[in-house]
Design goal:
Elements (H helix, E strand, L loop, with lengths): L1 E5 L7 H9 L4 E5 L9 H13 L5 E5 L5 E2 L7 E3 L4 E5 L5 E2 L2 H4 L7 E4 L4 E12 L5 E11 L1 E3 L4 E4 L11 H7 L9 E4 L5 H13 L6 E6 L2 H5 L1 H7 L2 E5 H7 L5 H14 L4 E4 L14 H12 L4 E3 L2 H4 L4 H19 L1 H6 L4
Parallel strand pairs: 1-2, 1-17, 2-3, 3-13, 6-7, 13-14, 14-15, 15-16, 16-17
Antiparallel strand pairs: 4-12, 5-11, 6-10, 8-9, 8-12, 9-10
Length: 347
Amino acid sequence: MEFYATLGKACDDKKILREMFQYGMTGIRLNSAHESLIEASLQIGRVFKAAEAEGVTADLLIDLQGPELRVGDVKKPILLKEGKSVKLGSEKGDIPMPQLALDLLYPGQEVLIDDSRLKLRTERIIQTEGDDGVHTRSATCEVIRGGVLYSRKNISVTDRSADLPTLTAHDKAQMKLLKQYGVTGVMQSFVRGAGDIQLLKQELQKNDAEDIKVFAKIECKAGYEHIGEITELCDAVVIARGDLGNAFPLWELPKVQKEIAQVCRRLDKPFIIATELLHSMEHVAIPTRAEVSDIYNAVLDGASGLMLTGETAIGEYPVRSMRFLTKTANTALMMSDPKVKELLDLP
């Protein structure tokens, strides 16, 4: 079974990385929406050195931006207080938002940010015309669910979607560097159908990198609706529960996860469960009972891999998080062994 961590400041240390490999980590994910291969080159070097020291051949997965809307860069974290108004736009003092996102808004529209941790409701749309005759939009919003806003966090506009290209210019630039940095797998974000996977494979071929594995991230309704054709074309599916939990009512997410897993099993395709496996461990040394049960059940459902995100990228306990992940999963693997089940007279 594969155990992945997400690269970030919390685990950017050779000693920490070595300990994570000792507990069973098999690979690292780099989220290129936050840091490019070039920007993360020193961190990547430390990962491979730590893996070599522990006798591990580590995977390096790069998560492409794909057709996703994100907050722009903010100079410092912004505290959004519930009940207060904020302005979204591109002028000085605004919370930076791409025009594609602003074009989707109307009064009363909800905006979810950072995997729904922040929630805004649009109050007013402001349309302006520049000296060049180009119309731009901004919006004032009420903060419904507050918290701290950081740069480059994902945006979801409820019930609406933008027509975005499969691969951004940034993605294509990363594709040229895959072999140079030892990337073993490319994760295509927000896969909507077979066409997205075909385009990604064409781009890999252009860069003489067709041997690199293709991971299809399912995190929108279109991907869920076309899961069969997507699964047949990719090397592995990633059930990315962050944005997937924005695309559906949260109480439906377990059902959606189970259905995707069922398709993967039927087509004999590996699948990975990602996002908030041990979310509480970003700040607490011990996970919740619900979290370890979630991991255990994901393994019993046939997951071939599990992926930590914020727990290892920004969390306070990256090593302990990996330890709980691998120990819980290995317990489930042991209990799912036919010989063990027979011995314990389990169904």
